[in-house]
């Protein structure tokens, strides 16, 4: 019996969050090696299971499984097949991106969408490119009314440190409503995904606040505060940071990320809750730059450390404040 197993990881923003919601803006996003796994095997009928929920499902409408079901429908439409014409499978997803019932905030919905597409691409021997998976996952989320930038999808699909320039999601959504999926996929959506290779070695750390935040709710809360000046200033600093990463200019990386952090703090006080303020303040006196990541209000913050002794000091300061070290890896 044919059985396929694939994985996808998570993501966190280094710079450009909130601004990336506006078409043409750029963000720097890092893949996080905390994984979900999908196992697919032949079956008589389509059956779905995720360890996020108490029970499995089929393709009957189910609120728990609506994202997975819509992803399968998107792929079937792309292949020009009805659900009944798809060779049936059993899809089992495991690996909660949470601990003690509290989510990490590293992109679980994006991971599930990409994971389902990767698994079925392998199961059906489709060999879908990363770019096609990105478009299919974004198509699925737009069809469901998602209000995110799709930057998480870009990072999770390419499984790398990326610079993502966002596209006009309203325009693409209008195409989805009026044109075939094949026509929509064939169009140039106007995004850009560049894989970044940093030219200096530093430690990348993720601190988890253990305070879950709902991204879509934070976006609704903060979006109205976004101004042309915020967009202009953020884009400028993101591009400066991108170039500095690629040329290995530590001081410019630290300065640009500090300015990005200040811009977020000025955008809304809700972004830096008390624990994220503590996470940021722990950089004091160290060769480290720390900031919130993503929508803020909880979940995770990130830090870049340019000294191994300072890395250990930062981790200790975080632990003393109840902040959990979720990931530590060399960024190079």
Topology readout:
Elements: E1 3-15, E2 26-42, E3 47-50, H1 66-78, E4 89-94, E5 98-99, E6 102-103, H2 108-123, H3 130-143, H4 151-158, E7 162-165, H5 169-178, H6 181-186, E8 192-195, E9 202-208, H7 215-222, H8 228-247, H9 250-267, H10 274-281, E10 288-292, E11 300-305, H11 308-320, E12 324-331
Parallel strand pairs: 3-4
Antiparallel strand pairs: 1-2, 2-4, 2-7, 5-6, 7-8, 9-11, 9-12, 10-11
Helix pairs in contact: 1-2, 1-3, 2-3, 2-4, 3-4, 8-9
Report mean pLDDT, rounded to a whole number. Answer: 95
> Any idea what the CATH architecture of the largest domain is?
2-Layer Sandwich
Sheet with the most strands?
6 strands, mixed
Q: What count of domains describes the coordinates?
A: 2
**Highest-level CATH class of the largest domain:** Alpha Beta
Strand content: 15-25%
Oligomer: single chain
Query: Approximately how much helix is present in the residues?
Result: 40-55%
Do you know the CATH topology of the largest domain? Answer: Ribosomal Protein S5, domain 2
Count the strands? 12
Number of helices: 11
Order of helices and strands: EEEHEEEHHHEHHEEHHHHEEHE
Which spans have pLDDT < 50 for at least 5 consecutive residues? Answer: none
Q: What sort of overall outline do the alpha carbons produce when their principal axes are compared?
A: globular
Radius of gyration: 20 Å
The termini sit apart by: 41 Å
What class, by secondary structure content? alpha+beta
EC number: 2.7.4.2
Enzyme class: transferase
Organism: Streptococcus alactolyticus
Pathway: Isoprenoid biosynthesis; isopentenyl diphosphate biosynthesis via mevalonate pathway; isopentenyl diphosphate from (R)-mevalonate: step 2/3
